[in-house]
Amino acid sequence: MAERLDALICQAVPGVSKAVRWNSPMYGMPGQGWFVSFHVFTGFVKLTFFKGTSLRPPPPGGSAQEARWINLVEGALDEEQVLAWVRQAAALPGWGKF
To answer: E strand or H helix at 33, and its extent?
Structure first.
């Protein structure tokens, strides 16, 4: 699942920057900041969009001021929806700057 998410994010945003923070891969655009990250748990992967409340439709999880996430399980990955969210998120100002 993690390898597939990495591939989808790279497909949706050519030239995306990658880093690891808090044991999680993070993705961002230089000058714009980080827009998405995921973390692997036993049984699911949590895909977090830092400006998730701005996405349409917003991912279903979360109660933070702006972040929203979705818990993904093996065999239930809606790739088209993930691609749409990633493209939207990459176009927004992100979290932090680098």
So the answer is: strand 33-41
| Residue range 13-54, pLDDT digits in tens | 999 999 999 899 999 999 999 999 999 999 999 999 999 999
For residue 15, give Cα distances in angstroms to 61, 75, 84.
28, 28, 17
Question: What's the length of the chain?
Answer: 98
CATH architecture of 2-90: Alpha-Beta Complex (3.90)
What predicted TM-score, i.e. pTM, was given to this entire model?
A: 0.94
Residue 86 CB coordination number (10 Å): 24
What's the CA gap between 53 and 73, in Å, rounded? Answer: 22
From residue 3, give the alpha-carbon distance in Å to each of 9, 36, 65, 72.
10, 15, 29, 13
Is the dihedral angle over the CA atoms 60, 7, 21, 18 positive or is it negative?
A: negative
Identify the CA nearest to 85 among candidates 64, 71, 69, 72: 69
